Amino acid sequence: MARFRTRLALFGSAAALTAGALAPAQLVGAQPAAAANYDWVALGDSYTAGVIPAAGDTFEVPRDGCERTDRSYPQVIDRDLGGLFDLTNVSCGAATIEDITFNAQYPIGRRVPGFSEDPDYPFPPAPPQSEAVGPGTDVITVGAGGNTLGFADILITCLQLGQGSGGQDTRARTPWPPTSPAG
After folding, report:
1. Is 169 exposed, middle or buried, given 0-12, 13-18 or 19+ CB atoms closer than 10 A?
2. Please, are residues 75 and 123 in contact by the beta-carbon 8 Å criterion?
3. What is the pTM of this model?
4. pLDDT at position 59
5. CATH of domain 32-161
6. Cα torsion 81, 85, 88, 89: sign
7. Most buried among 78, 79, 105, 140, using CB within 10 Å?
8. DSSP assignment, residue 176?
9. What angle do CA 111, 114, 119 make, to 5 degrees?
10. What are the residue ranges spanned by the domains of the chain?
11. Other residues' Cβ atoms within 10 Å of the Cβ of residue 162
């Protein structure tokens, strides 16, 4: 009886996998009934905006200081699936959860105090990102949390702790490979 149950489970799994593999293949080849445009609003912080130079070129014209780039994930999806979505990308570097939901944000642009100054700084405040969501919005993506958590402050603190200690301060690093308590 156990052998029968095992075979039944394997057969059921194989059938489900086959059905799952065939369904997307049919959808890919199918033409949409109409140009089904969905209104998509992308909300988020620098990770969503693609602020780092490796994420492409800034495309804001005129610049608003949010530093959205052409290879951030919302822009890549819009480029690849542009016929399906009407994208409104209001993500912004240095945004916190409060900036996304309630507060106006003062974008910093490429300004990194102590390292580089942005010639266009200061930028006017950007409204809370949630204001871009309306009754006709079909898709909302949100990527945020690092700035609310204080990721930049944590990173700077780790750099400062390690800088003056000759690499001996273990509060900002974990030894690798980890040592076992036995020795």
Report:
1. middle
2. no
3. 0.67
4. 83
5. 3.40.50.1110
6. negative
7. 105
8. S
9. 35
10. 32-161
11. 16
